[in-house]
Amino acid sequence: MSEGVTTASSVRNVDGVTERAMHWLVLGxxxxxxxxxxxxxxxxxxxxxxxxxxxxxxxxxxAASAFASGLISGTVTLxxxxxxxxxxxxxxxxxxxNELSDQLGGTRDLRRTVRDxxxxxxxxxxxxxxxxxxxxxxxxxxxxxxxxxxxxxxxRSHAVTDYAEGIAAYGESIAERIESQTAIVNVLAxxxxxEYAQNMTATEHFRNEYGDRLSxxxxxxxxxxxxxxxxxxxxxxxxxxxxxxxxFARLSRVVAYSGLVALVASIAMALVYxxxxxxxxxxxxxxxxxxxxxxxxxxxxxxxxxxxxxxxxARQTASVGPxxxxxxxxxxx
Length: 333
Known about the structure:
This protein is mostly helical. The chain has one domain. 75% of the residues lie in helices and 0% in strands. The protein is built from eleven helices and no strands. The chain has helices at 17-28, 31-51, 63-93, 97-118, 127-147, 154-177, 184-190, 195-210, 216-272, 285-316, 326-332. The longest helix has 57 residues, at 216-272. The radius of gyration is 27 Å and the shape is elongated. The two termini are 21 Å apart.
């Protein structure tokens, strides 16, 4: 193949402590755990600031009015936003019979394509097992393509071998990272990079360069590889839709629950303050104040945790097929 047109033999790996921590924070980690970490950091910061007298929280401070007005209104606003998100999710799951029929037909076409190339009577319903079948079939077809070319055919044989080995290695790298019955977001994370697009471009170049000189068997294997790479591209977008819909549905529910608790905590913290005193012993006030802040900001922390993941997924799956924005290429590198 010509210079600059190569296959991607492996999906993106997350290496290094910092990169793993960022991956856990914005994508891979449980969103409730991420929110818990954010709340813990906020509580610790406020506790230290109040303990060392940087923040005034005693009688006569602005803490009472902050709890009574600003934080209560902020909590109510955030819960309203969560309910709006819930309405958005609901609007996406409803549809007319024609729309639902088109969606079902598209899903069946995708599954039929994978089933035919895999030679299986049916394909799995589990997302992880489905993608694993696609990856294993892709590897198998690439190996068959490499075996279908005469070794004595010089440059063409080397080009076919290089291409087939790259595609086979790509399929193997996907299969190695997939765990059965895992969360759909973890399945999506395996193919979140742009390697599929690079391989689609390499396949198009290879077909145009050598397609007319391939045997019928080799041409059939190449067509199957192209279909399977397309299946990965479509599956990637479909899993994105499912993952975001599930996350937004959970977000609205968790924010509604935590928002109610935060509202009660705001009212309770406001009532702790009297005109010239507080109902809590002075030595415990920094801890009570910090924990109260933690409870109140919990809905916001949950919201931020889910937005981290949604924004990351949306940014890295903006394109379908070989058109890849520079932002996706840089983040996949």
